[in-house]
Amino acid sequence: MSIRILLADDHELLRQGLIKLLSIEPDFEVVGEAKNGQEALELALKLQPDVVLMDVNMPALNGIEATKRLREVNPAIRILALTVCTDDQYVHEIIRAGATGYVLKDVDSATLFEAIRVVAEGEAYIQPSLLVRLLDEFKIWRGKEINQFTPEELGLTEREMEIVQLISQGENNKTIAEKLFISEKTVKNHVSSILRKLDLTDRTQLAVYALKKGLVK
Could you report the per-residue pLDDT of 76-94, keeping only the tens digit for each? Predict the structure, then answer.
């Protein structure tokens, strides 16, 4: 079953480039394109895509406000912010508005494809380089409040702890598989097991949780 995607960006050349790029993947289907936030909102409600690739800075209605309004009327639609904005404020604002992912426009195609698939499954995805930076800020904010727990106390195996460490470093499943000499499917199975054991829903929550529990430094 294909993932139905709506593109929302005010640059036509970028939209056309994305359409060609996404058409490479057999499980992706671009169902529409919007040149501003208002149009994105209207088309999303009409076309009911699985994922909206949403730019942050757009005319008529910016991506943050469009995300907020769309999530209010249809929370089933997943929103992946795709932007040039590296300012942490934008990351925080659009995630708060309801986006389930955030990647930069200069990201490589493999990471973009992974982000779309992860978001389509209902999980959160933050580009690895941004996740590491957010965690660094979180470390400063938490300070001495970090509580120390051992993996055994949390019911994690040695392999699962290796994966927690790598996720907290911003690594994706493919890189983790390569570093641990296992398949991507095995990594996914381990991640699902970790999330289930810790009662978490996605990788971003896991990375923050690991820091709070003192599992990573």
Answer: 899 999 888 766 677 778 8
